[in-house]
């Protein structure tokens, strides 16, 4: 499946080592002011080649809007966006084209399709997230019209944990450092953890949290199409995400009901005194901030020798993955996590009729 969403739909296309990657957004209401600069700002947060903690591949990721925008506003027609790949180098993939990279998508693709684009992982490359971020940029702009904001930040990298941060810290600080951590005192230790792994030819993972503010109560469905189920699917659908929790998530299993339930009160509107549920009950938003966390695994492509197989000769082999890889996917994934949450919320806003065919 290359299409996501039911009412606000995103289709992405393109391979990491092909000529371009792109996206088509269908179902965006007409009249939304949007320009290439809005999309570029989000792409600039995602692109590789920004310092030692990310892949050295140097992509400017310049967006061209091809359709669906006229005189600075969406027309209600499909918005097609293109980014050309300019720093493609497949040389490090040639020697391993018949070897399966442990932890990457190589074997799954081969088992399903019978052959695969071995150059940079093709569609399984993290580069595919360019399309998600372009779609997410439009979703974010649409949501801002309804007073909804989406903010992600790094909670931990490997064994280095950020301290407690406030929502204001997250809104203010997430992009002032390369690891995108709102606890600025933890940034150096997080970068060091990534650099230590990189120097040893290894990689590290971590946890990213995303918060959506201003989401009205009543988004989502009670049985199928639950908002929490859609968010979990969207976040789990990002490469390298191995766990998703909403509110206290897995930590809720250790609590009693009295420790988990959020008590209600009235403050002009219905609110809860705590937000352990993460802003969703019964599949429907409560009006409290929506809070999700994702567990990001360590980057699979590492240069430490590993045992694998040569699928052409069907015999054992040793692989050392060279090339330009992220020593940690965590700093790269923060804008992608925001994009996926924005896409789900925009989809539900349009689905629920809170946003019509025109603004
Ligand atoms: C933004 C982003 C950047 C990534 N960078 C790399 C990378 O440099 N090298 C790598 O091996 N995997 C990288 N990945 C992870 C792989 O794409 C992913 O692990 C692979 O597709 C297998 O999917 P799975 O881990 O979800 O099973 C990245 C993922 C994302 C989302
Ligand atoms: C190019 C990007 O990230 C890439 C994600 C990736 C992977 O295997 O997922 C492998 C590396 O690239 P290549 O395909 O050239 O080996 C990363 O640089 C990007 O995010 O724009």
From TrEMBL:
Binding, FMN: 123-125, 282, 297-301, 324
GO biological process, one term: amino acid biosynthetic process
Cofactor binding, note field: Reduced FMN (FMNH(2)).
SUPFAM superfamilies cross-referenced by the UniProt entry: Chorismate synthase, AroC
Entry's EC annotation: 4.2.3.5
Binding annotation for NADP(+): 46
Substrates-to-products reaction catalysed: 5-O-(1-carboxyvinyl)-3-phosphoshikimate = chorismate + phosphate
A Pfam family of this chain: Chorismate_synt
Domain of life from the UniProt record: Archaea
Molecular function GO terms recorded: chorismate synthase activity; FMN binding
Keywords assigned by UniProt, alphabetized: Amino-acid biosynthesis, Aromatic amino acid biosynthesis, FAD, Flavoprotein, FMN, Lyase, NADP
GO cellular component: cytosol
Family annotation (InterPro entries): Chorismate_synth, Chorismate_synth_AroC_sf, Chorismate_synthase_CS
Cofactor(s) this protein cannot do without: FMNH2
Family assignment from sequence similarity: Belongs to the chorismate synthase family.
Protein role: This reaction introduces a second double bond into the aromatic ring system.
Protein name: Chorismate synthase
Species of provenance: Methanocella conradii (strain DSM 24694 / JCM 17849 / CGMCC 1.5162 / HZ254)
Organismal lineage: Archaea, Methanobacteriati, Methanobacteriota, Stenosarchaea group, Methanomicrobia
Gene: aroC
């Amino acid at each position: 499946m290359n299409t996501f969403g039911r009412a606000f739909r995103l289709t992405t296309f393109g391979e990491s080592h092909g000529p371009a990657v792109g996206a088509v957004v269908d179902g965006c209401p007409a009249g939304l002011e949007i320009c290439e600069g809005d999309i570029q700002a989000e792409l600039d947060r995602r692109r590789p080649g920004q310092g030692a903690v990310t892949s050295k591949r140097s992509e400017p990721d310049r967006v061209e809007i091809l359709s669906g925008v006229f005189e600075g506003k969406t027309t209600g027609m499909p918005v097609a966006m293109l980014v050309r790949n300019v720093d493609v180098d497949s040389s490090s993939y040639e020697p391993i084209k018949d070897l399966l990279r442990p932890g990457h998508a190589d074997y799954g693709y081969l088992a399903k399709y019978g052959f695969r684009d071995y150059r940079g992982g093709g569609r399984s490359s993290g580069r595919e997230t360019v399309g998600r971020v372009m779609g997410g940029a439009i979703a974010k702009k649409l949501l801002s019209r309804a007073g909804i904001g989406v903010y992600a930040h790094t909670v931990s990298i490997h064994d280095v944990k950020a301290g407690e941060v406030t929502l204001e810290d997250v809104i203010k600080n997430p992009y002032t450092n390369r690891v995108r951590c709102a606890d600025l005192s933890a940034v150096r230790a997080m970068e060091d953890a990534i650099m230590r792994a990189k120097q040893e030819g290894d990689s590290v993972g971590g946890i990213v949290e995303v918060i959506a503010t201003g989401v009205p109560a009543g988004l989502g469905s009670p049985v199928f199409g639950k908002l929490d189920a859609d968010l979990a699917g969207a976040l789990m659908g990002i490469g390298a995400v191995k766990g998703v929790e909403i509110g206290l998530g897995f930590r809720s299993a250790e609590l009693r009901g009295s420790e988990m339930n959020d008590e209600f009160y009235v403050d002009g509107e219905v609110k809860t005194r705590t937000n352990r549920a993460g802003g969703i009950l019964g599949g429907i938003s409560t009006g409290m901030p929506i809070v999700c966390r994702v567990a990001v695994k360590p980057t699979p492509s590492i240069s430490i020798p590993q045992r694998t197989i040569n699928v052409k000769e069907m015999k054992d082999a040793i692989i050392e993955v060279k090339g330009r890889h992220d020593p940690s996917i965590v700093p790269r994934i923060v804008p992608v996590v925001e994009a996926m949450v924005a896409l789900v919320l925009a989809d539900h806003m349009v689905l629920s009729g809170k946003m019509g065919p025109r603004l």
